[in-house]
Amino acid sequence: MNTQEMMDSALKLAGLDKMPEDCGIDVEGSNIKRVLMGVDMDTAELLLAKELGYDCVVSHHPRNTNPNKLEVLNTHIHKLEALGVPRNKAQKRLEERKEELHYNMHVSNSRRTESAAKLLKMPYISIHTPADIIGEGIVQKFLDGKFAGKKDTKLQEIVDALEEISEYRNSARKPVIRVGSKESYAGKIYVLMSGLTGPGPDILKEYFEAGVGTLVMMHIPEKDAKIIKEQKIGNVIIAGHMSSDSLGLNKIADKWREAGVEVTMMSGIVG
Fold first, then answer.
1. What is the pLDDT of residues 33-75, one digit of tens each?
2. Which of these, 113, 150, 153, 171, could form a disulfide with 243 (CB 3.0-4.6 Å)?
3. Do the Cβ atoms of 49 and 98 come closer than 8 Å?
4. pLDDT tens digits, residue range 185-229?
5. Beta strands 189-192 and 214-217: pairing type?
6. Beta bridge partners of 190
7. Average pLDDT of 244-262?
8. How buried is residue 249: exposed, middle or buried, by Cβ count under 10 Å (0-12/13-18/19+)?
9. Nearest to 189, CA basis, from 170, 166, 165, 161
10. Which residues contact 28 (CB under 8 A, 6 or more apart)?
C-alpha cells in the first residue's frame, strides 16, 4: 500500500468521500509493509519507528497545519439539524467555541512533528475524524441494540454495557458518569464522539434541548460538566478517550492487515 491508499481505505470505512481537514498525509510513502500506529505519534515515536524498521507512522491526533481544521466542528451543526435544531442557531452557538480553539491553535508549534518526519524520510499520516466516526457508529449501534425502546434505562446500565466492548473493558480508565447519577433515567441515548473535539456547553445544551437525555462522549472538561449539572437538563457519560479512539483505529488497522500490511499498535491504543 501507499499512504494515499491507506487514507482512502480509512475514509471508505467511515463513509466519507473526501479527507476531512483534521487528517493529513504529511510525508508520502509507497510500498508500505510495516506500520507503527498510535493515538499520539510525535518525534520520539518517529525515531522509534526508524530504529525498528517500520515503513510508516500513523497518528490519530492530527499534527497537520491545515488552517481550516476548525471547519470539522461544523459536524455539530449537521448533527443538531438532524435532531430538529435550525442550522443558523447551531452555527451561532458554535462561534464562541471556534474562537476559543483558534486562539489555542494560533500559538501551537504545528510543524514540529511534520518536520521531524521529513528529516527522517519517514512516511507520516494522521487519521482523526474517520476513526472517530467509525467508533461513534459502533457504540451507537451497540447501545441501540441494548436499550432502544427501554424507557426505564438508567445510567449505570449504560456504563455496565459499555464494558462489554473489549476496548472499554481492557482500558485502564473505565467509563464514568460525569453528569447524573447511577439511578438517573437515561432517556434518549446519543453517542457524540466525532466533530474534532468537545463543542462546549452551549452546543451540548442544544443536544439536550433537542430531546437527547444522555450524551455518551469520549471526554469533557470539568468546567463544561459543571455548567451542564447546573442546567439540570441532561446526563453525560464519558466512555473514555483512548479507548474510544481505539475503536475506529482498530477497525482501520484490520482493513490494512487484510491488504497485507503489518500494523503494530502503541501509544494509547487499547485492544
1. 999 999 999 999 999 999 999 999 999 999 867 889 999 999 9
2. 171
3. no
4. 999 999 999 999 999 999 999 999 999 999 999 999 999 999 999
5. parallel
6. 215
7. 98
8. buried
9. 161
10. 2, 3, 4, 123
Query: For residues 175 and 193, what is the distance between their CA atoms, to the nearest angstrom?
Result: 14
Q: Which grid coordinates are listed for 196?
A: 474534532
- Please tell me the total number of residues recorded for the chain in this structure: 271
Is the pTM higher than 0.85? The answer reads: yes
Question: Which cell is 32 given?
Answer: 508500505
Give the integer Cα–Cα distance in Å for 212 and 191.
Answer: 10
Conformational region of residue 58, where left means phi above 0, alpha means psi within -120 to 50, and beta covers everything else: beta
Q: Residue 166, class by beta-carbon neighbours within 10 Å (0-12 exposed, 13-18 middle, 19+ buried)?
A: middle
State pLDDT tens for residues 227-242: 999 999 999 999 999 9
Please give the average per-residue pLDDT across 91-101, as a whole number. 93
Cβ atoms of 121 and 27 within 8 Å: the answer is yes
228 contacts 214 by C-beta, under 8 angstroms: no
Q: Are 93 and 202 in contact (CB under 8 A)?
A: yes
φ and ψ at 189, to 5 degrees? -95, 125
